[in-house]
Structure formats: C-alpha cells, structure tokens
Amino acid sequence: FGPVVAVTALTKRLHTRAEVEDVTMTLLEFAAGHLGYVGSAWACPGVFFVHVYGTRANYFYQVNFRYWEQSHLLDQHSRLERQTYGEMERVAVQPAPTDMLREQLEEWAACIREGGRPEVGAREALEALAVVWAALRSAREGRRVELQEVLAQAPA
C-alpha cells in the first residue's frame, strides 16, 4: 500500500510472566490514504494470518505455525483464499510454492555478485523498523506518531 506515514498503537501485558507486552493493536496510516491493522497476541495459540480487504475482493492468508521454522514446507501448509465482491464463498488460490528464506538469501547473493539492488534495501528496512519504534512510542505516550518524527531521529 506504499509508505506508512503515521502509527497509533495500544499494548498490554495480559498473560505472560515476562515483563513485555503480549498483546498489541496497531493502526497504520499509509501515504495513499489506506488504513492497515497489525495485531499480535502471544497469549493465544500460535497463529499467523493476513487479511487484505479491497473494493473488488478480499484475500485471506493463513499459515500453519507448526511449519514456521521449515520455510521450504510452509507454503504446503498454508492457505490463501479470495472472496470477490458480492460473493459469500471464498475460493482457494494456489500460488506457486516458494521458500521465503531461501529466496531472500539467493536475492542477496545475486545482488552481491551482479551489483543489483535488493527488493528491500536499507531505506525500506529502516522505514519498517521506524514503524515498530513509532508503535512503541505511540503505546507509551498514548498518541498518534508520525513516521517522519521517528525517521528524523535515525542516524544518517
């Protein structure tokens, strides 16, 4: 959806004994005007899913967390479904199988050998980390945090 411009978050420690929050709710505001939600709950059974809601279709992706550490098997134990506008049924979508960790390492090696630019470079990584820092600041201070505010404090 493009770059994130602002973050609003809430965090709580509800279940774990560790002195860290185990439940989070984070709203992302994108430059193009879209809104996103990222939630986590370490107090519940291991689940990982992504829902993308659009004007013409919705997509639902769910991972069997038992295979999270076996990236070469993950796609075989995941489910992607599409629900088009006006329809109640979700239809399975079968993407080509991948190995996300292997693909990242191969891309990195190819960039070194051929001098290319990685799909996710230093700037994108810094912006992703800034979203995390903005969420932490938002939860701590109880306010909406502009990403530019966090990025301005990053080393050059």
Distinctive features:
single chain, 156 residues, alpha+beta, 4-stranded antiparallel β-sheet, 8 strands
Q: Quote the distance from N terminus to C terminus.
A: 26 Å
Uncertain regions: pLDDT < 50 for 5+ in a row?
Answer: none
H/E topology pattern:
EEEEEHEEHHEH
Count of alpha/pi helices: 4
Tell how many strands the DSSP assignment holds.
8
Task: Please state how the strands of the largest beta sheet are arranged side by side.
Answer: 3-2-1-8
Shape: globular
From the alpha carbons, calculate the radius of gyration and give it in angstroms.
18 Å
Biggest beta sheet summary: 4 strands, antiparallel
Share of residues in helices: 25-40%
What features would you describe in this structure?
The protein is an alpha+beta fold. The protein contains four helices and eight strands, in the order E-E-E-E-E-H-E-E-H-H-E-H. The strands form two sheets. A four-stranded antiparallel β-sheet has the order 3-2-1-8. Strand 4 and strand 5 form a beta hairpin. The chain is globular. The model has no long low-confidence stretch (mean pLDDT 90).
Can you give me a brief rundown of this structure?
The chain is 28% helix and 31% strand. The chain is of the alpha+beta class and 156 residues long. The strands form 2 sheets. The chain has a 4-stranded antiparallel beta sheet with strand order 3-2-1-8.
